[in-house]
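Q: Focus on the chain.
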Amino acid sequence: MIRPGAAEIAAAVKARRQTARSVTEAALADIAARNPRLNAFTDVTAARALARADQIDALVAKGLDPGPLAGAPFAVKNLFDIAGLPTRAGSRINRAHPPAEGDAALICRMEKAGAVLLGGLNMGEYAYDFTGENAHDGASVNPHDPRRMSGGSSGGSGTAVGSGLVPLALGSDTNGSIRVPSSFCGIFGLKPTYGRLSRHGSFPFVASLDHLGPFARTVTDLALAYDAMQGPDPADPAQTPRRAEPALPGLNDGIAGLRIARLGGYFEQGAGAEARAALNHVAQALQVRAEVALPHAAEARAAAFLITMAEAGALHLDRLRSQAGAFDPDVRDRLIAGALLPAALVIEAQKVRRAFAAEAAALFAQADVLLAPATPCTAPMLGEKWLDLGAERVPLRPNIGVFTQPISAIGLPVVAVPVWLAGATLPIGVQVIAAPWREDVALRVARLLERMGAVAAPLPKETT
């Protein structure tokens, strides 16, 4: 069975070629059959989904438009509030909390556009993870090889979309948690500009770095979800109150007039053979010859580490004092270390972050789009603890985000695009990075690459 995308589902539902209920029933049956192996979903909201599907079918029967995502199934990382469920945030502690009284802002906006929520997805504990391995719920596995990592911390989102359980999922990205699963699972992911989409109703990790965004198997679906979620929300104090700036209308405009360059220096050091080949592949497809550098990317990554540890340690301090034994030990120890960081180091890290933002802003005077690897390698085996990063052998868990962290530190919009190299059995991602608030530009470049056949998000053979 070929699994259609969100745009195809919405068109079929609105044209009455298919009902939202039949789409939802098929998706729920697929989850019941395949999720025990994939471990993408931690919560399935079947009754809610069927009721919502019936509402959409009733609107269609009346000749009304249910929205651009009519009947399209989606699911969310379990740090999003879902009314009636505890907001797990991948933890053992949170699942004992009272159920959420309402839905996260972005769930509300997706449903307003006609999408149907199917449930909550597995994730790394408190989003402090790059592997997709959860100590309490188990690993969400790679859809192309179940022996391998899905990436984290939005691992269940990557698995659910990459395997075809849902055409759309939402996740969060603090240091790379949308782009890493996109790279490992071979799908498209969008980390918007910091402050673009509301985070209201999501469990925080690092307030000054947290972003929310969508995953999809096509750029059109990615843009549809992104457009549906745009708009100011005073409930998120970090959100910049900008009007919606839809990306979909100009998605197929191509790249005429855009200045595109590849990032060298830091963004090539440590990249494995597949990462370098994928970047070359995308650069050649776009006929990119210019190469530029961000000389202080390593310092920016170090600053992001310090800020992450300090803010997350402070956020969880009471839980660490009272329930330390309930944490994944790896997460717990990093949080404790963060809580002990001297304030002077954190202040210095913020200075480095501001200087790096100015450095990037100057670079965008020369280029509109930057290309860089998303991960240094393809998906490692589950349980792997070490990573070969250039000539060094380093701990895997913190270093998978070596190329994503500097970009997150300054909140730039990025589309992760999936590359399948000739003869490869696993995908790897490339970051398409744009200037602040120019998600539309990054999406246009990704869409052109998709139309050219240079990047794609095929389903695993067993699901087609």
